[in-house]
Amino acid sequence: MTLATLPTRRDEAWRYADMDGVARLGREALDQWQAIDVAAGTSVTRCLVVGNDAPELHRFRVQLAEGASAAFFITNAGSDYTRVEVEVRLARGAHFEFGGVTIGGAGVTREFVTQVIHAEPEATSNQTIRAVHWAGATGNFLGEIKVARHAQKTDAAQDFKALLLEAGASANAVPQLEIFADDVKCAHGATVGALDEAARFYMMARGVDPATAQRLLVQAFIGDAFVSLYDAGEHERLLEAALAALEGARL
Amino acid sequence: MLIIDNLHTSVGDKPILKGLSLTVPAGEIHAIMGPNGAGKSTLSNVLGGKPGYEVTGGSVSFRGEDLLALDPHERAAKGLFLGFQYPVEIPGVSNVQFLREALNAQRRQRGEDPLSGGEFLKLAKEKAALLQMDMDMLKRQVNVGFSGGEKKRAEMVQMGILDPTFAVLDETDSGLDIDALRIVGAGINTIMRAPDKAVLLITHYQRLLDVVKPDKVSILAGGRIVETGGPELALRLEAEGYDAVMA
Question: What ipTM did this prediction achieve?
């Protein structure tokens, strides 16, 4: 199916998107989905560093069969509009893990959009998103969780935290929960704040220079998104890509 | 080593220190006592360079340099250590990582070679043992989940590792039980009692001064040093109270 027109901000899922970036992506990019089917009892892990100097859109449609699991870990740190969408359908006992970081300045919008459909009972999902922005940049997380009527014992969680290093940067969190089953656990939380000045002073009082103090605090902050990434090499690659984006950020 | 001359400091619009003068030479442990609200914590924060404290007059010279012109991390590299009354929790950063970064940042600023991971761990282990602190605690996140007493002991482990020439210890004894007080006091003596070092020890109670024997005791009240004497001054305060002694 092709979209007749480009999405607009009236579309809920594109509400905070950079429409100029969307236009530059073009229609063709909007029709491309990457399908990932995970067979019963098996698992896949995807670790991605996305974003560059042109707009990017990455769309994944994931089907998890019974007892299957998928984990996505993504550093979204480009210097132009970058959007990652993941749609997941979970069968009985499946698990979906999502850890995402948007980080950057330069007035750029970076966003994650997830739709997690708990279609059958006893599936679990966990999403941890961290956003660190400055210089007029925006970080978005639009997270939808749908629990079907008979999907009892669903356990779904999403957690979004944003750290804005200076005024003018922004973060948008849109949690949407649609729950038709009655015996489920669905948790969601969103906070937006500034760097902990007390912690920064404490570090400086011990001799840590301001840039290193900021780096350590940001590293600790975004680390939550990758706690479930056990591949040490990939863990380091994603973390380093995020921290590299921090170079040149305001102190 | 430290010369404070006629220091005036405001927090917001409120003057807190009103002409404070104090000299602490090398080799001296100088206790500062005073009633609540006298400006004790303000003094330590100003010396550490905490944002929000505006110096409106006077000067502070540290080892011959204008201390107030330096950023907090530069003060640390020059050998100043600020022991916090309320050590800050830093989730997600381990003590080991934090302290190695801190020590090596100081060493770089002084033109010294950074310590390797192995060298640092050896040093950390030695200093932790001095404060009877388990190395496992140092691998945990900075002050997260530490009890009040553990935080204060961790402060002293940090001091041991960073090995400053001058320490400002702001109510390091608060929140300590009797045993922990002895351990912390002994730590201060071992780390800081030396002819080329000095300590400004801010405290409310004589009990710390029983372990860390001060050479001088000053009373800070109303934003100024109103009296300076020997260790006997602290004993008099303990026995008679501020009103009687300052009257």
Answer: 0.94
